[in-house]
């Protein structure tokens, strides 16, 4: 998609957002220069506070990329290798994880381990599915109990199966081998290097005034938020908050080698597997266009729906984020249709 196509794209996304009663932000920029940025709906329904283009939104699984980049930075400094057996770091914890599982298996969703938030299970976004009280899940080690007891589902390396628990295991490993709390590690090795001043793992029970509440339902009259559905503070598998401008900074910093080397980024953006259901390929922590140049991050949780796509050639970033569970998908569908047209 060329720069000349962006005005028409923006108009079609704006029209779909208005038709859907979309609540969130749509942002398109080329190498950091805004082509379109518009906020819709309310960040706080109870008090009538509108979203702005600088509102911080939950990312859900889109921030798995942060975990992957931190792990690759530990590979670059020799603390880990992609072939490091997970068992060598976990020791007696999480004993049901197969001895053959490696760091690369976890990064590529090919570990075959059981998932505490199983994407293949039959559950709805408004279900209460966590088996540990959400208020206890504010530090990484607390998740050991949450993800324990899940039997291995398939042999390591046999198949791709999107796995939230695998990225929590990566967070536990990264914290243990680095000697830093996971959130501090991400702040130092990702946020600071990328210049992300507004991105953070915020507590859901203490959101600042510039962050949007995540609403379970799209109905603008519903005040039910996601505070009881998700860990009180995000971690390795999701839950950071970001602004649309920060997302653009992140993509460009990653592409330029500011977070990890450009050689490592190229390897992370190399396709390893294809997910036909998603219509995307997968590298290390990043989705990739099925047939195209784009690098994609996507998230879906109670109160969050988001997709951000970066075209490394044109350095165009398109971010669509809603502060409700289903709110972004109509606009995202319009965007993906435009890409394939």
Walk me through this protein's architecture.
The chain has 341 residues and is α+β, with helices and mostly antiparallel strands. The protein has a single domain (3-340), classed as Beta-lactamase (3-Layer(aba) Sandwich). It is built from 10 helices and 12 strands. It has helices at 6-20, 64-76, 87-90, 103-107, 143-147, 164-178, 182-194, 244-255, 262-268, 329-340, and strands at residues 24-30, 33-40, 42-44, 49-50, 57-58, 241-242, 273-275, 280-282, 287-289, 295-301, 304-311, 316-322. The strands form 3 sheets. An 8-stranded antiparallel beta sheet has the order 2-1-12-11-10-9-8-7, sandwiched between helices. A two-stranded antiparallel sheet has the order 3-4. Strands 5-6 form a two-stranded antiparallel sheet. A hairpin with a 5-residue loop joins β9 (287-289) and β10 (295-301). The model has no long low-confidence stretch (mean pLDDT 96).
Brief write-up:
The protein has a single domain, classed as Beta-lactamase (3-Layer(aba) Sandwich). Helices cover 30% and strands 16% of the residues.
Features of the shown structure:
10 helices, Beta-lactamase, alpha+beta, single chain, 341 residues, 8-stranded antiparallel beta sheet, 16% strand
Please give the domain count.
1
Strand-pairing-aware structural class: alpha+beta
Q: Indicate the mean pLDDT.
A: 96
The CATH superfamily appears as DD-peptidase/beta-lactamase superfamily
SSE topology string: HEEEEEHHHHHHEHHEEEEEEH
CATH topology: Beta-lactamase
Identify the strand order in the major beta sheet: 2-1-12-11-10-9-8-7
Which CATH architecture is right? Answer: 3-Layer(aba) Sandwich
The CATH class, by name, is Alpha Beta
Please report which band the strand proportion falls in: under 5%, 5-15%, 15-25%, 25-35%, 35-45% or over 45%.
15-25%
Low-confidence stretches: none
Helix content: 25-40%
Instruction: State the total count of DSSP E strands.
Output: 12
- Please state the CA-atom Rg, rounded to the nearest Å: 19 Å
**Quaternary structure classification:** single chain
Amino-to-carboxy terminus distance: 10 Å
